[in-house]
Write a structure and sequence with these properties.
This protein has about 240 residues and is mainly alpha-helical. The chain has a two-stranded antiparallel ribbon with strand order 1-2. It comes from marine sediment metagenome. This is Tyr recombinase domain-containing protein.
Length: about 240
């Protein structure tokens, strides 16, 4: 339809040919639901995460629902004591940051300063590592991408009992209604909900091989970005294409 409309519009404008497409309505298709993991698949996915880099990228895409570009833009100085600054598509926003998720991100600090990127590799390389995790978990019926993890987090938030309004706010959708904006929760209210309904932490509580204490202690709202546990990187270099 788009190709024919463009063709007839051009011929009509250039040569005065009658445009029959003006009488044909644009076809409407039912929007397909975004790809996402089931609860069991998500547990299997988390069970194969091993290195500090893998936990950090899963924290971004699944625990914090980041988009690819947001993870690439993330700086160490954006990681605060109990919130994180997100450089989004349209605006800069703040999200609540639970202690365990904060610790997973700061394991990549490795002595670098606040202006340094959390991931000093490109978004394509992060996507490659994400895809490798899907393969390792034996998940091949959905696309192994960061966006699949983001979609999964949005769905499982509701499965664990979280409300849709807070879910939309945490996903930072650009098409939120005016009512959504008037009824927005503040970051402290979102923090309390994250402690209870965050899908990544809820799944980790169900896995025998991960940390049993996934809550941690919330610090005061000081801008401390230092962590005691600093470890070196351990990750596979993605293959280069010729």
């Amino acid at each position: 339809w788009k190709a024919l409309s463009a063709l007839y519009k051009f011929t009509s404008d250039a040569y005065g040919v009658r445009n029959p497409m003006l009488k044909i309505e644009k076809p409407r298709f039912k929007k397909k639901p975004g790809q996402r993991l089931s609860r069991d698949q998500a547990k299997r996915f988390l069970s194969v995460v091993g290195t500090d880099l893998e936990w950090a990228l899963v924290t971004c895409y699944f625990g914090l629902r980041f988009r690819r570009v947001e993870a690439e833009r993330l700086r160490l100085g954006d990681i605060k004591s109990d919130y994180i600054i997100v450089q989004g598509k349209e605006r800069t926003e703040e999200l609540p940051l639970l202690p365990l998720l904060r610790d997973m991100l700061l394991k990549l600090q490795n002595g670098r300063g606040p202006l340094s990127p959390v991931f000093p590799i490109k978004a394509d390389a992060l996507a490659y590592h994400t895809k490798q995790l899907f393969k390792r978990a034996g998940i091949d019926d959905v696309r192994g991408s960061p966006h699949t993890l983001r979609n999964t987090a949005g769905r499982l938030w509701l499965t664990y009992g979280g409300d849709d309004r807070a879910n939309r706010q945490l996903l930072r959708h650009g098409n939120r209604t005016m009512t959504d904006h008037y009824s927005e929760l503040n970051i402290d209210e979102l923090y309390v909900l994250e402690e209870r309904f965050n899908p990544m932490l809820n799944l980790m509580r169900e896995l025998p091989t991960t940390l049993t204490n996934t809550t941690g202690v919330r610090e005061t709202k000081a801008d401390s970005q230092s962590g005691d546990a600093i470890s070196t990187w351990n990750y596979e270099t993605p293959p280069t294409t010729v």
